[in-house]
Amino acid sequence: MLVLNAQIMKNLMCDLLDLAQMENNTFKLNKEFFSFPDLIKKAFIVVSHVAQKKSVQLILCDIPLQEQPYYNEVYGD
């Protein structure tokens, strides 16, 4: 949990730096590949303890087969 919270803080700081770059017209787009399903799974892990405290059930649905190619495509070489 500590590692995930550190990652969230890192992402927040990067977002703030990106905002500063946008305001200074020096923003550069980072075209890094990431897995959207993995991102969603990590988000569920981060909020799962809050859901347990509030007695809320989190449900993670699978991606329908016909939509999987959109999530599994790798861009660039």
Compile the SSE list and pairings.
Elements: H1 2-23, H2 36-53, H3 68-72
Sum up the structure in keywords.
77 residues; single chain; 3 helices; 2 domains; mainly alpha
Structure, briefly:
58% of the residues lie in helices and 0% in strands. The chain contains three helices and no strands.
Beta-strand level of the residues, as a percent range?
under 5%
Give me the Rg, rounded: 16 Å
- How much helical structure, as a percent, in the residues? 55-70%
Tally of helical segments:
3
The helix/strand class is mainly alpha
For the sheet with most strands, the description reads:
none
The counted number of beta strands is 0
Total domains: 2
Average of per-residue pLDDT values: 82
Series of H and E elements: HHH
* Outline type: flat
Q: Identify low-pLDDT runs.
A: none
The end-to-end span amounts to 34 Å
Verbal overview:
It is a single chain. This protein has helices at 2-23, 36-53, 68-72. The termini are far apart. The relative contact order is 0.12. With 77 residues, the chain is mainly alpha-helical. The chain folds into 2 domains: 1-30; 35-77, no CATH class. The longest helix has 22 residues, at 2-23.
